[in-house]
Amino acid sequence: MDRLQLKQQFIDYFNQYHSKIDWSLFKCEIDLHLLKKGQHLFQQGDDAKRLYFLNSGLVRYCNVSDKGKEYTQSIAKAPRVVGSTRAMTLGTPALFSIEAVTDSIAISFPWDIFYQQMSQDLGFMKAYATFLETIFIQKELKESSIIHLSATQRYLNFCRDFPELPGTMPQQQIASYIGITPIALSRIRARIKESAGSR
């Protein structure tokens, strides 16, 4: 897939949020990122002043605590805009890393140029605002699930949302994403397997 096709995917993605974007105003050059599983778009502490668009694959937002414990905060599946809003807008180091969970392709734009060109078009600004709304809603739902859903149901939801990952993603990463320990996840998997075998 060439750069024009990748950029068209980006255009199609935002067109779903607003149909009247004047793309003739958007002339931002793209960088191409071909990621193998385990490679990063950027790492915690990096200068991450680019907006990324994930064309294919899956990535995870991961954070390492001061004690060296790693947490998977979020998982994003293409097509999706990804990046650190805080790092882009404030110019501060990224508080997390974005790592490819599968082989992935992404394009990116310098945030300052992207924002300057986007701000020329009200339709594009509305599309970006609607995109942010969907991200905030997803974040609220995930945080609510930690409180209101059982660990088993959170794991089943993970399997439903990311069917390609349960057999390939490390158990520790899955466990941290759904808010439990790897030991608890092993028990849940064993109960599910036992229940399926008894039917």
TrEMBL record:
<dbReference type="InterPro" id="IPR018490">
    <property type="entry name" value="cNMP-bd_dom_sf"/>
</dbReference>
<dbReference type="InterPro" id="IPR000595">
    <property type="entry name" value="cNMP-bd_dom"/>
</dbReference>
<dbReference type="Pfam" id="PF00027">
    <property type="entry name" value="cNMP_binding"/>
</dbReference>
<protein>
    <submittedName>
        <fullName>Crp/Fnr family transcriptional regulator</fullName>
    </submittedName>
</protein>
<dbReference type="InterPro" id="IPR014710">
    <property type="entry name" value="RmlC-like_jellyroll"/>
</dbReference>
<feature type="domain" description="Cyclic nucleotide-binding">
    <location>
        <begin position="35"/>
        <end position="118"/>
    </location>
</feature>
